[in-house]
Amino acid sequence: MRAQPALRTRNVGKRYREAWALRDCTLELPPGRVSALVGPNGAGKTTLLRLSVGLLTPTVGSVEVFGESPATNSVRALSRIGFLAQDHPLYRQFTVADLLRFGRSCNVRFDHELAARRLTQLGISLDARAGALSGGQQSQVALALALAKRPNLLVLDEPMSSLDPLARQEFQQTLMGAVADGELTVLFSSHAVHELERVCDHLVVINHGQVVLSGDIDSLLAEHRLLVGPRIETDPRGSRSVVEVKHSDRHTTLLVRQGAAPIMPGWQANPVGLEELVLAYLRRPVDPEAESHKEPA
Ligand SMILES: Nc1ncnc2c1ncn2[C@@H]1O[C@H](COP(=O)(O)OP(=O)(O)OP(=O)(O)O)[C@@H](O)[C@H]1O
């Protein structure tokens, strides 16, 4: 039997006044995985994340977390979800110990010991005031608070964007350790396409409010090939399997989906890297029907 998805959205659209931030978004996140949500500025990532945790309700369509709508705000549904907002605000005057006590008083499943141990291991004093910690340490405190809730789905909005490379690595290790420890599914948004492969095993790419690619990373890489051959003058973009076409003086390179695409004589099939794959999908024009994000007059 197929496991229940951690997150399932069906034809979700979100409109802010007359503008659509998200259109016809249908996706499933398998449980126990780390998924990255990738897209350029304004693509709709924060909107999708806020819909996933019940902070927004869809204009159309449905959102379910482990089979329940997060927007109903039922205690049971929300106790299974952890959320780290983009700027992960902490009460600056509170000590770390105050924040942990506060977390415990707000969440029935809060694991105080776990959070205190994680932070001590990272050398973060429980007596320190949040406002006196570095950006990286504040992110770790916010992550420890979110994990102490023992959520089944942890949603993080660009959690590493302000961290230096060392702090990013520590943050990633804490996250991956938490996934290895228990029944946790992670969905985080990121612009750092080059480091996704190290951190996650599932990917959702959105552009102009539409999901343009999603799936298991290994499968996506196996399904795509870069075909390199002598320059062609016809435009093969009409074929659904052709994602992108590039020409040099003498050669044409086709990014195709459909691993088994027949190779023409004189053509070579090469694997594609994840960053190249994501960027190719982001460069594709989106469906003109949905591109405007505007309601028809
Ligand atoms: N509260 C709001 N009111 C009106 N429009 C909004 C609101 N929030 C977001 N938008 C618009 O919705 C679209 C998607 O925004 P969203 O914040 O979801 O994108 P994003 O992918 O998270 O962007 P970024 O990477 O810059 O954080 C943008 O065009 C944005 O201007």
From TrEMBL:
<keyword id="KW-0813">Transport</keyword>
<dbReference type="InterPro" id="IPR027417">
    <property type="entry name" value="P-loop_NTPase"/>
</dbReference>
<dbReference type="GO" id="GO:0005524">
    <property type="term" value="F:ATP binding"/>
</dbReference>
<keyword id="KW-0067">ATP-binding</keyword>
<dbReference type="Pfam" id="PF00005">
    <property type="entry name" value="ABC_tran"/>
</dbReference>
<feature type="domain" description="ABC transporter">
    <location>
        <begin position="7"/>
        <end position="233"/>
    </location>
</feature>
<keyword id="KW-0547">Nucleotide-binding</keyword>
<dbReference type="InterPro" id="IPR003593">
    <property type="entry name" value="AAA+_ATPase"/>
</dbReference>
<dbReference type="InterPro" id="IPR051782">
    <property type="entry name" value="ABC_Transporter_VariousFunc"/>
</dbReference>
<dbReference type="InterPro" id="IPR003439">
    <property type="entry name" value="ABC_transporter-like_ATP-bd"/>
</dbReference>
<protein>
    <submittedName>
        <fullName>ABC transporter ATP-binding protein</fullName>
    </submittedName>
</protein>
